[in-house]
Write a structure and sequence with these properties.
The chain has about 100 residues and is mainly α. It is built from four helices and no strands.
Length: about 100
């Protein structure tokens, strides 16, 4: 998606994971947030514990008490599961549909 945006292609759909890996040639490497740098990595991903650690350190360094998550998932069920994992790591109660 970011490659498309950088090339001025604003109306492109987010590619499916397999297509994205094929186009990019590889998966992005995880770059943990460097505590104290104040410079967030381009992406934050990993295990629920790694994501929690990165987001907590980043929020402390930047003195923020709210973070907005923007995901690039094309599968709705995977997105919901990801949010459930994140909520669990932060001891939040996920919203129930309905």
């Amino acid at each position: 998606m970011y490659r498309y945006l950088s090339q001025g292609m604003m109306d492109m759909k987010i590619p499916k994971p397999a297509q994205a890996v094929e186009e990019l040639g590889e998966l992005p490497r995880r770059q943990p947030y460097e505590k104290g740098s104040g410079i967030p990595p381009r992406f934050i991903f990993g295990t629920p514990e790694q994501v929690h650690e990165d987001l907590k350190a980043l929020s402390e360094d930047l003195s923020v008490n709210e973070i907005i998550v923007q995901d690039l998932m094309t599968d709705h069920q995977a997105r919901l599961h990801s949010y459930e994992l994140l909520a669990s790591e932060f001891n939040l109660n996920p919203r129930k549909n309905g």
